[in-house]
Design goal:
The N and C termini lie far apart (38 Å). The protein contains 3 helices and 12 strands. Helix 1 runs antiparallel to helix 2.
Length: 244
């Protein structure tokens, strides 16, 4: 019931600390292994920063385990200091009803979209492991969409969607006129239908910025328009520090 996550540059943000989506993704992977059930939803609350070469202890706690559903949580800590908490529900039910009532935006395929331009050298961070192409860029509207893939991953999983679901801060940077940096307070992933796809469309929709915080949702689409899942976040906003 205890797992370990070594913090390396490859799972860190551009500021050198553990990328929140990677923490959530690790917790999801651990929960699915321990319970032998797929994640339905998982929500992370980020409490502290941690940097390489720290090691995060991932302690699994099963709250309730029924015939088809498990409720559980993971506490991520370093040296006794809690870094993040993840609550989740896991399970799968044999029900015939299904449907999808939202639609992906009409954008060009990834092969016809330009590469995303970064404001900094990604070095060996998580950004260096993602290939991203800008599909929708409308500054000031709160809408941004990126085709994204991780060449080293062979299939879509709930854990990989957790990483891609941590890009609401990117949308915040596009929504407001000034240069800002945004740090996630939370990340909630809801998994819909995990179908095979080589690219994932990260469709970011910012709802509001107020009192120094920003709020938004994103939709994760397969190339064929299947909804893989959704994510939502709130983030702290501060002016971008170019020297840092």
């Amino acid at each position: 019931m205890r797992w370990y996550l070594p913090v390396t540059p490859g799972i860190c943000s551009g500021l050198g600390s553990l990328f929140g989506g990677c923490g959530l993704g690790a917790a999801i992977d651990v929960l699915e292994r321990v319970t032998d059930r797929p994640v339905v939803w998982a929500s992370a609350q980020y409490l502290e920063y941690t940097k390489p070469p720290s090691v995060v202890d991932l302690d699994v706690h099963i709250g309730a385990a029924g015939r088809t559903t498990t409720q559980a949580r993971v506490l991520g800590s370093v040296g006794g200091t809690e870094i993040f908490t993840v609550n989740a529900a896991l399970g799968e039910r044999d029900v015939s009803e299904e449907g999808q009532w939202v639609r992906a935006p009409e954008v060009a395929p990834p092969e016809k979209c330009p590469p995303r331009e970064l404001r900094y050298d990604p070095g060996l961070t998580i950004a260096s492991r993602l290939e991203q192409r800008t599909a929708l860029d409308e500054p000031g509207t709160g809408r941004t969409a990126l085709w994204t893939r991780t060449p080293e991953l062979l299939e879509v999983s709930a854990a990989s969607l957790a990483v891609l679901g941590d890009f609401v801060p990117l949308g915040l940077g596009q929504a407001v006129p000034g240069d800002i940096n945004a740090n996630s307070l939370d990340n909630t992933l809801r998994v819909a239908d995990l179908v095979p796809t080589d690219w994932v469309l990260v469709d970011i929709r910012i709802e509001a910025v107020a009192r120094g915080f920003g709020h938004g949702h994103l939709y994760l689409w397969a190339r064929d328009g299947t909804l893989l899942g959704t994510a939502s976040q709130s983030a702290m906003i501060r002016p971008w520090n170019w020297e840092r």
